[in-house]
Amino acid sequence: MEWERGDALPFRLRRTMDYLLIQILNGVQLGLLMFLLAAGLTLTFGIMDLVNLAHGSLYMIGAYLAWTFIAWTDSFVAGALLALPATFLVGGVVERLVVRRLYARDHLDQVLATFGLILFFNDLVRAIWGPAGKSIAVPAFLNHTVEILPGVPYPAYRFALIVAGLAVAAMLAWLVARTRMGMLIRAGASNRRMIAALGVNIELLFTLVFGLGAVFAGLAGLMAAPISSVKIGMGDDILILALVIIVIGGIGSIKGAFVAAMIVGQIDIVGRAFLPTLLKSFMAPSAASTAAPAISQVLIYVLMAAVLVWRPTGLFGQRT
Most Cβ neighbours (<10 Å): which of 74, 113, 163, 252? Predict the structure, then answer.
């Protein structure tokens, strides 16, 4: 009996560590999706000084366009590749027809106008795709598990999301740091009046930046669709987290958005996974299961408040 007890403890510890590793990977996956959404938002906010509450609607549009193209082509990859330029076109049209008129307005006008865009996009989706939600199946070539460690399986699609998210993050870092467009983006974030005075077509730059942000939002939407659902208003809740991330990381900072998204992803996922067990030690199981997600969300906002107290411009924001 003593041998069995001594053997059970390492086994239980190993299972706990395996479960922790899986939840950490889930947090990384969520963080990368949030980064894709927050990256476009922080670019438009940092460069264009635009408060765009409709950014979550572009996340939704990307998912619906992906559903449509996947149904047409019967291929997840082909549908995703068609959905991205289509989302860029949607972003470009929105920027030219609506957003461009808001640059000279104050933030309250921008909030009201982009909130109106949320209502418009929700009704547009309802008119085109109907009120019922849609589902996108996990592609067959990723509908299995991979062993991240011996005896520790992990869904291949979620692992592919991590790889794709890291690749896109690296590409965005290269774009911002090593290309002419990236130079203009960084200059625009610092002083957009100066680059306009130097002869840069600021209107074209703003359209490209807004379209690029739409692409990242749409990419996040289509990547998340197979593990969640495609429905009206799906981007509204996730937009709040994206706003929290750019505040924590620093407005206009891609690096800050990445770091903050990783932190927020871990707090949310690991908190939801382990808080119920902790809370069950002093409250009913049903109450613990209900309280754990709420506490995880509260911890994220507490972190934001602490960062703002310590560094009002965010972790990597520029001090003025």
Answer: 252
